[in-house]
What does this fold into?
Amino acid sequence: MIARRRILLAFAASTLVLPAGLWAALFPPKGLIDHLLCCGSSFQAPASQHRTVALASGLADALPVNSGGGSGRAAAPAPIEEENGYVKLGFDRLAGYTFKVPPFDPAATPNVKPPTGEEQIPDWLKKLNGRKARVTGFMLPLKMDGGLVTEFLLLSDPMMCCYGAVPDMNQWVVVKMKNGGVRPIQDVPISFYGDIKVGAMFENGYMTGIYALEGDKMGEVQG
It folds into this structure.
């Protein structure tokens, strides 16, 4: 749980202006997590190799489009496909608009409700809150039990773990499996099925994400 909080807060803090002391606490010199957990033997692989793996998989919906810049409004999306009752979501949709974390310092204003920024989330995406969804991305393990991953981040790009690319708030999904864990698999896009939650999440006053998935199962690994 501590590791999960640290990495989520670190991602959130990267988009905020924080006091130097708090920044140092969130980013200790030795790093936030053991990269053997998230990267394994691929730790020394060049960044270009990760991108090649992603493109070769044929799962373009795992990669973001128009995730930065622009007006903050997403273009009208194509009709969303369904698979056995699960809407099919990739980061081409989840990260297909600009989301800016509203400035807020919980240390300075501890009794003030933090702004959510949810007005930036497209209405069509908000309407998916609570639906069954299949989400495709790259796994970053956060919590393991008996060699299986029970909690993880599903990222739009594997380079966000080891190569210093700071993700935007809409470029990851917090996933918690409902019934036991799944085997850890990195470097290839994977689909997970479950209940999607769309809306701002907070930890100690800091926004830690806008997407969560209560996982039912893992799909077949592609590539």
Observations:
- The chain has one domain: 2-218.
- Residues 1-72 have pLDDT under 50 and may be disordered.
